[in-house]
């Protein structure tokens, strides 16, 4: 399927695939840090309110 796509559009499909996977990885890392930050803030608030 990939070779047919490569021949149809006359471009390197693997380069585009790596670009898409790299973009997805970067988005996942950013999402991880946002969620982690919110989670740690929530834990901190619950510990402070407990005292």
TrEMBL record:
Species assigned in the record: Clostridium botulinum CFSAN001627
TM annotation in the entry: 15-35
Keyword field: Membrane, Transmembrane, Transmembrane helix
UniProt protein name: Peptide ABC transporter permease
């Amino acid at each position: 399927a990939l070779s047919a796509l490569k021949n149809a559009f006359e471009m390197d499909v693997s380069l585009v695939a790596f670009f898409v996977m790299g973009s997805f990885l970067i988005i996942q890392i950013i999402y991880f840090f946002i969620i982690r930050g919110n989670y740690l803030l929530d834990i901190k608030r619950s510990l402070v309110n407990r005292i």
